[in-house]
Amino acid sequence: MSAASDPTDRQLIALLQANARASTADLARKLGIARTTVVARLARLEASGTIVGYTARLGSDAADRGVQAFVGITVQPKAGREVVRRLGGFPELRQLASVSGEFDYMAVLRAESTMRLDALLDEIGDIEGVIKTTSSVVLALRVDRNA
User: Fold this and answer.
1) In this predicted structure, what is the pLDDT of residue 141?
2) Spatial CA neighbour of 22 closest among 10, 32, 13
3) Same domain for 80 and 40?
4) What residue stretches are annotated with the HTH asnC-type domain (predicted)?
């Protein structure tokens, strides 16, 4: 049984996904439970690993600036851990997934310009263990359910 199998926990998580900065008092009011209950549920969800952090999402104006690219990355055997560690240091990295198929990893990058994206791809290509990268620049986002 997962830590978020309870309907109240699921509602709490949904509220936090909409606004991670919501106060416990505000969450309690919206859920119709005591603030101390919210605090206890949050502590349990964090301890169980269901909630692993809180984040800030950029508004559409800030998120739409620059250029976004999907980058397939092929690495040498046994180099993955170090490559992932190095990629994690790039602030332009939005997502990184290990994937099946032609590539070992698929990265989503957002850079302020095509010039920065080009430099970023060079930096990624220079990481020890990276064999090749294949990039596709996003021209238009047709469906976005992550907003």
Assistant:
1) 84
2) 13
3) no
4) 6-74
Strand partners, 69: 109, 137
- Cβ-contact 62, 16 below 8 angstroms: no
- How far is the CA of 120 from the CAs of 13, 44, 55, in angstroms? 35, 39, 24
Tally the residues of the chain: 147
Q: How many CA atoms are closer than 13 Å to the CA of 140, on its beta-carbon side? A: 1
113 neighbors 89 (Cβ within 8 angstroms): no
Task: Give the tens place of pLDDT for each residue, 93-127.
Answer: 999 999 999 999 999 999 999 999 999 999 999 99
The amino acid occupying position 60 is S
Parts of the chain with a pLDDT under 70: 1-4, 57-64, 145-147
Structural domain that includes position 133: 60-137
Tokens describing residue 78:
């046994």
